[in-house]
Amino acid sequence: MKLSELSTETGVSTASLKYYLRESLLAPGEPVTRTQSEYGPAHVERVRLIRALVESGGLSLAQVRRVIDALDSPTVPRHELLGVAQEALMDSERFEADADWTAVATEFVERRGWRIEDGEVLLPQLGAQLKALADTCDVGGRDTVERWADAAEIVAASDLDTLTEDDAQALRTAIVGTVLSDKVLQTLRRLAQQNRTAQLYEAAKRSDQ
Amino acid sequence: MKLSELSTETGVSTASLKYYLRESLLAPGEPVTRTQSEYGPAHVERVRLIRALVESGGLSLAQVRRVIDALDSPTVPRHELLGVAQEALMDSERFEADADWTAVATEFVERRGWRIEDGEVLLPQLGAQLKALADTCDVGGRDTVERWADAAEIVAASDLDTLTEDDAQALRTAIVGTVLSDKVLQTLRRLAQQNRTAQLYEAAKRSDQ
């Protein structure tokens, strides 16, 4: 198909497609004439992936590039899949490590009994995030973080179950699934907050009667 | 304090502070001379808030503006706090509603027995996110979403508990807490994935012996 048809098929403007081509996020098509190339199903799939990562996942183009580089790299052993996914998604520029809070995060994880392979980035990141919460709104005491960790365990068990089936697309599933389902979890949290608010409101009304 | 001292106190460059002032994210200081103003503790607090939302929360400046407008608005009744927070954080431009997937999301929430006050935005958003997952990596079947919803209920119950105490800063806590703790939850998920991977690996080794 022509570039204009790839645009129709994917719902992405030709201007954006040309940008993806220029930035090598999308492989060039097969040249047909001096000014025209032919694009195939692999291009459609790649464009849909970029679009999902940007629009639904909220990734920057720099993050999309890291994800795509990881996907284009040679096969990764199953037990390293989530590690590669995590690395591709890391915002290491986004936080400033704080030694005291890294220690808080490390101690939390140890008390929880979690075995962490590679905490050099994630533990300082968790510490910086807990510091930001404590500094700005006094949220994130030990009890709260314990409850969040309970929730995280449920999600992680589900994540690993998704990956145990034999799947040629496993890395793609690990990366894309993680990015997009982070967003689904945020939306479910908002919905569950509304439900919980309604429940508490009903309970308060009953106890007033 | 002078602008340069505000910069030292908060760790935000004077260029960024001038930008916040120009964009009215930060109130002007008290004029002292024709070229100098005096800034106080309220400025320090506001700059720390903006910084946390941008750096730790990953919000765009447009989102920061919505959050700040909500915070600067008159007192909001307790039961509307999370609604105002949700509205301030909404990325309505980020997704395209799909009627079939909105129906899937609505049916899911109903089956779950969740009472949703105001699903006009959140249900199409959930639908679009589930569609993106299904389209790109075949993740997000009913069982998986049920497990995510279990996790979301734990987090939402914790969120509401945080807000029940009497607190003049409740809206701030609702908004900032939600933004920053979304990030904490993402990090805890990554850590829990590592722990779960280690557990499964151990179990596989034992069953090989």
From TrEMBL, chains A, B:
The keyword Transcription applies. PANTHER family: MERR-FAMILY TRANSCRIPTIONAL REGULATOR, REDOX-CYCLING DRUG-SENSING TRANSCRIPTIONAL ACTIVATOR SOXR. InterPro entries: DNA-bd_dom_put_sf, MerR-type_HTH_dom, MerR_fam. It holds the Pfam family MerR_1. The keyword Cell membrane does not apply. This is MerR family transcriptional regulator. It comes from the Bacteria. GO terms for molecular function: DNA binding; DNA-binding transcription factor activity. Keywords: DNA-binding, Repressor, Transcription, Transcription regulation. Residues 1-70 form the HTH merR-type domain. It comes from Tsukamurella conjunctivitidis.
